[in-house]
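Standup notes
- DV: blocked on the single-chain target, sequence here:
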Amino acid sequence: MGIVKIEDLLHEEVRRASTVMCRSINAQAEFWMKIGMLAEANPTLSFNQIIRMQLEAADVAAAEPIQAVA
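- DV (later): unblocked, structure below
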């Protein structure tokens, strides 16, 4: 965990979006960073395709059995 310095205007956009999306400011910023990272890594995919890919990955992770830690 660390501190990310962003300009005031961008912080205000994150704050506004977090209110609409019912997320904390940090969760909204993290969401945008993750989607941006995935968009850069997959430039041919649309936003909806990226979201669908993440939902499918979450379904697979949820279906996997929990491993005991020794």
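- Follow-up: The chain has a mean pLDDT of 91.
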